[in-house]
Specification:
The chain is an all-alpha fold. The chain has one domain. It has helices spanning about 1-25, 30-50, 55-85, 85-95, 100-105, 115-135, 145-170, 175-200, 205-230, 235-255, 260-280.
């Protein structure tokens, strides 16, 4: 349970830092470059300070592949915000949990109990209510391209989470530091190349904020792999998504004075019920 809690804390900090960067109109590319640079440095330090760590060609390819999905997910999320609005982009990213949960049931026979099934249903309800609570009713009509972007976002983020689960089930524990080092180092080089080809000026403040983002970003993946080793995906992924919604809403209220409407309050209640149901044995 401790690894799940630590994953939730790190993931919530990531969301808040991304929100802060948008508030400051920062550069997404510079933020990601700084983020992945610092995350890769942390992963390399942990790799070289873990004597029992091991490596394999399979984990190297796996880490590089997941890195591509990570970077793509960030950029497609930005495009989804532009094409369909932040509300539907957040909804799509949260609903992506159905992919790792569904495949964990099919591939790894992680059959949920009755309470977990109800908890999963309440998780989806919570996400829908959360979307309604932040929806901009004056937003323009969403074109077909926006809908396609939302679908791609859902699949991309769900696939990234699924492969983290696949790694935790298929590779030895000793390869985790090597896998994370390859993942974040590859992600940094990808974002660096994108930045160089874009030929835009380096946004220093965004790059520095990326360094701050790199710490929770690395440890969210690190603790997620540990949580998946000890708990079923149908508990881990919904619990993370719902907890992020609750903690982000509470923090936004105290920092940015963002008040919740009726839908938001219902989402908090439904989220609390979700957490309780998921943890009933």
């Amino acid at each position: 349970m401790i690894y799940l809690i630590l994953t939730i804390v790190c993931s919530t900090v990531i969301v808040l830092l991304l929100k802060y960067n948008r508030e400051k109109k920062g550069s997404t590319t510079c933020l990601l470059a700084g983020n992945y640079l610092f995350a890769s440095l942390i992963s390399l330090v942990i790799l070289f300070r873990t004597p029992a760590s091991c490596h394999s060609f399979q984990s190297m390819l796996f880490g590089a592949f997941v890195a591509c999905i990570f970077v793509f997910s960030f950029y497609i999320f930005s495009k989804a915000v532009s094409d369909a609005g932040p509300s539907l982009a957040a909804l799509s990213s949260r609903l992506s949990l159905v992919i790792p949960v569904a495949f964990s049931i099919i591939l790894f026979k992680e059959l949920p109990g009755t309470w977990q099934i109800f908890g999963f249903v309440f998780a989806v309800i919570t996400i829908m209510l959360f979307s309604l609570s932040v929806r901009n009713h004056t937003s323009k009509h969403i074109a077909a391209s926006g809908i396609i972007t939302l679908i791609i976002l859902l699949v991309a983020m769900g696939t990234a989470d699924l492969f983290m689960k696949v790694f935790s089930e298929s590779r030895p524990v000793c390869e985790k530091p090597f896998f994370l080092a390859v993942l974040f180092s590859t992600a940094f080089f990808i974002t660096l190349l994108i930045r160089l080809f874009s030929k835009k000026k380096i946004h220093r403040s965004s790059f520095i904020r990326g360094f701050l983002l790199g710490v929770p970003n690395f440890f969210s993946s690190y603790f997620l792999l540990e949580a998946l080793k000890h708990m079923n995906a149908i508990i881990v992924y919904p619990a993370i998504s719902i907890s992020i919604i609750i903690l982000t809403a509470a923090t936004s209220y105290f920092i940015w004075k963002e008040k919740l409407n009726a839908y938001g309050l219902l989402a908090l209640v439904s989220g609390g019920i979700t957490i309780i149901l998921l943890n009933i044995q």
